[in-house]
Amino acid sequence: MIVLCILFFSLVPKKSLGAVDPYFQACSVPKTCGDGQAIRFPFYIQDKQNSSCGYPGFNLSCNNNGHPTILISNTNYTIHEIFFQNETLRVSNSAFSNPNSSCIPSINSISLPGGRFDLAPNQTNLVLFYNCNSSVHESWPSEFYPSCYGENDTVLALSGQDRKLISNVSMECKSSVRAPVDAYGGGIGKSLRNGFVLKWKASNCSICEDSGGNCGFDNIMYHFKCFCPDRPHAWNCPEIYPSCYGENDAVLALSGQDPKLISNGSMECKSSVLAPVEAYGGGIGKSLRNGFVLKWKASNCSICEDSGGNCGFDNIMYHFKCFCPDRPHAWNCPESVLPSNSTRYEACKPTNCGTDPNINFPFYVFGTETDRCGYPGLGIVCNRGKPVYRTLERQYVIQDIFYENQTFRLVDEEFSLIILAFLLLTSSPLNSLSLSSLPMMLNCFSLITARHHFLLVLRHL
Ligand SMILES: *[C@@H]1O[C@H](CO)[C@@H](O)[C@H](O)[C@H]1NC(C)=O
Ligand SMILES: *[C@@H]1O[C@H](CO)[C@@H](O)[C@H](O)[C@H]1NC(C)=O
Ligand SMILES: *[C@@H]1O[C@H](CO)[C@@H](O)[C@H](O)[C@H]1NC(C)=O
Ligand SMILES: *[C@@H]1O[C@H](CO)[C@@H](O)[C@H](O)[C@H]1NC(C)=O
Ligand SMILES: *[C@@H]1O[C@H](CO)[C@@H](O)[C@H](O)[C@H]1NC(C)=O
Ligand SMILES: *[C@@H]1O[C@H](CO)[C@@H](O)[C@H](O)[C@H]1NC(C)=O
Ligand SMILES: *[C@@H]1O[C@H](CO)[C@@H](O)[C@H](O)[C@H]1NC(C)=O
Ligand SMILES: *[C@@H]1O[C@H](CO)[C@@H](O)[C@H](O)[C@H]1NC(C)=O
Ligand SMILES: *[C@@H]1O[C@H](CO)[C@@H](O)[C@H](O)[C@H]1NC(C)=O
Ligand SMILES: *[C@@H]1O[C@H](CO)[C@@H](O)[C@H](O)[C@H]1NC(C)=O
Ligand SMILES: *[C@@H]1O[C@H](CO)[C@@H](O)[C@H](O)[C@H]1NC(C)=O
Ligand SMILES: *[C@@H]1O[C@H](CO)[C@@H](O)[C@H](O)[C@H]1NC(C)=O
User: Fold this and answer.
1) Ligand 9 centroid vs 65 CA: distance in angstroms?
2) Burial of 276 from C-beta contacts in 10 A (0-12 / 13-18 / 19+)
3) Whether the Cβ atoms of residue 129 and residue 86 lie closer than 8 Å to each other
4) Mean pLDDT of all residues in the chain?
5) 450 shares a domain with 310
6) Residue 122 Cα, ligand 7 centroid: separation in angstroms?
7) In this structure, what is the dihedral angle of CA atoms 214, 217, 218, 222, given to the nearest 10 degrees?
8) Which residues line ligand 4 at a C-beta cut-off of 6 Å?
9) Are the C-beta atoms of 196 and 92 separated by less than 8 Å?
10) Shared-domain flag, residues 196 and 299
11) Is 417 among the domain residues?
12) 177 and 307 share a domain?
């Protein structure tokens, strides 16, 4: 409890709402050199991104072909692909980049800056020999390739596996260079252009990212930083967010996983609500905007639909109906129906609010004379092209409807409008955020994917 209190007083942002930390803002958008690769922490494009957004030595340039390049021991290497999940990247010496040329340029051996980059496992070496004695030429005629310097110049390329052979040949040539390759196949030119894989070492960004921050580096303290909407933090963003209620209000957001922490938090704060979320990742704002998933229970529509009918509901008999071209039937349309004027049939065709998702049984759109096209309690309204589900106190935007497994994703309308990672809460809704405010859902829905719950706690100082 005491810990929570201290956290509370020290972390509540002093600045007024809406003033977003400039570092958070500067590092929030990944950039690209033009080839579509997103450049983000620990890398940054020197001319396009603030150096605080990446690690020292991970500065990149863009070449004329729109590819990022990195300078390692004074040689440009073209970056083909960055695998953030396992912290590797595939690069090749930019001198090999011209796919036109069949000649081999003269290059320097790579020397990796200690501590930052290592060769990934399973890389092999090619050894390139320059200015070799003609006797060697006679022994390995097919391993010689034209050099890019002078028409009589040739380069001998051998696999680096056979050390004895390499050392023999070395004595007969003026210089040699080791060129790592990921795989030796498709010819030496292709292998060299395909390059090799490096593993990098930098702080793991995911704890910061998962809390809604942008990873970066403090060049003065020479240490990793997590840039959060309020200010930079050491490793991750705090779980306390400003509320819309007033400058001195704050909302403490906790994952509902830890009952002890929750009960401590409850005692320290004035009120709390449970907000269901499908997954906790990318910060609380993102999690809330992503919403939660409900499963509905209603009659299976497919037997009616498959027979050519539109599903609906008879509010008087309080029972499922299958609206067929001729008239309503109990479950499905008879095989030969004569089309007549069945307004119900016409009215209950699938529709939408202007954009996805499609509105079909058991949902229906209010106010279009189609209140018998869906289940009671599943009427929705269209608001700015989006289907909105209203309860007595709250409005939820329906993001997706999965008819195949009877689930749909809801996002509290207020959260769906938040642009920043801030949690913006107005004064009233707190007590009504919980699922119990969905009275109509109580008997026909069950919450299926709320693996985590946030405790949103509003405290008035
Ligand atoms: C990086 O961004 C911060 C915050 O906006 C700014 O103070 C700093 O001057 C920037 N640095 C560079 C190199 O642009
Ligand atoms: C990265 O920064 C270093 C030091 O400022 C600089 O020498 C180098 O040219 C930069 N690398 C790239 C690829 O621009
Ligand atoms: C590396 O590539 C950049 C961008 O193409 C260029 O400006 C720079 O001069 C190159 N540096 C070297 C050492 O080749
Ligand atoms: C980074 O940390 C997360 C969570 O601790 C972990 O799942 C992930 O594998 C780590 N990434 C790397 C590249 O080590
Ligand atoms: C890294 O991940 C990529 C993409 O999943 C994979 O192709 C590659 O083999 C992995 N590299 C290593 C060294 O595990
Ligand atoms: C490749 O060769 C073609 C025709 O010879 C030429 O038009 C093109 O500019 C060359 N491309 C490069 C990258 O050198
Ligand atoms: C390296 O090669 C071995 C044998 O081919 C393989 O078992 C292993 O998975 C490879 N390691 C990586 C990281 O690709
Ligand atoms: C090249 O080989 C020949 C015969 O082995 C030898 O006489 C000559 O000195 C060698 N030249 C060089 C530069 O090693
Ligand atoms: C290449 O070798 C041939 C035959 O030895 C010679 O005539 C020619 O001048 C040489 N060219 C150059 C550029 O050295
Ligand atoms: C190395 O050179 C010696 C002397 O020229 C030769 O006898 C030997 O077979 C060579 N070894 C290899 C692996 O080519
Ligand atoms: C359907 O209604 C229209 C106008 O209400 C009428 O002209 C038409 O004859 C009707 N058709 C049938 C098959 O009843
Ligand atoms: C329902 O179906 C959608 C789309 O196929 C899928 O993404 C979702 O994971 C499914 N949900 C459940 C609970 O199976």
Assistant:
1) 35
2) buried
3) no
4) 78
5) yes
6) 6
7) 150
8) 86-87, 204, 206
9) yes
10) no
11) yes
12) no
User: Mutation test of ligand 11: which of 341, 343, 345, 346 has the most ligand atoms closer than 8 Å to its C-beta?
Assistant: 341
Q: Which residues 6+ apart lie within 8 Å of 40 measured at CB? A: 30, 53, 84, 215
Question: What pLDDT does 246 receive?
Answer: 52
What is the distance in A from the centroid of ligand 5 to the CA of 81? 10
User: How many structural domains compose the chain?
Assistant: 2
CA distances, 323 to each of 111, 309, 374 (Å): 75, 5, 11
118 Cα–ligand 7 center, Å: 16
Length, in residues, of the chain: 461
Ligand 6, residue 98: give the atom nearest the CA: 13
Shared-domain flag, residues 297 and 434: yes
Domain end position, chosen among 174, 200, 226? 200
Token look-up 């990796």 returns: 112
Return the beta strands (E) in 96-211 as ranges: 117-119, 124-132, 144-146, 154-159, 173-181, 196-200
Give residue 320's domain range. 293-460
What pLDDT is recorded for position 39? 95
Answer yes or no: is 8 within a domain: no
In a domain, 168, yes or no: yes
| Tokens describing residue 385 | 């092209």
Mutate to test the pocket of ligand 12, among 402, 406, 409, 410 (most ligand atoms within 8 A of CB): 402
What local confidence, expressed as pLDDT, does residue 427 receive? 30
The predicted pLDDT at position 342 comes to 75
Are residues 326 and 337 in contact, defined by beta-carbon separation less than 8 angstroms? yes
φ, ψ for residue 306 (rounded to 5)? -65, -25
Low-confidence stretches of the chain (pLDDT < 50) are 1-18, 418-454, 457-461
Ligand 11 center to 340 CA (angstroms): 7
Distance CA 173, CA 170 (A): 5
Say how many CA atoms lie within 13 Å of 390 toward its Cβ: 10
Please identify, among 200, 222, 240, the residue that sits at the C-terminal boundary of a domain.
Answer: 200
What is the rounded CA–CA span in Å between residue 290 and residue 288?
5
Residues 300 and 403 in one domain: yes
Q: Where does ligand 11 bind, in terms of residues with CB under 6 Å? A: 340-341
The answer as to whether 6 is a domain residue is no
Point out the ligand 5 atom lying closest to the alpha carbon of residue 120.
13
pLDDT tens for 324-357 read 988 889 999 988 766 666 778 888 888 899 888 9
Distance 167 CA to ligand 10 centre (A): 9
Q: Is residue 300 domain-shared with residue 160, that is, in the same domain?
A: no
For residue 18 the two structure tokens come to 């809406």
In what order do the strands lie in the sheet containing 144-146?
Answer: 144-146, 154-159, 124-132, 173-181
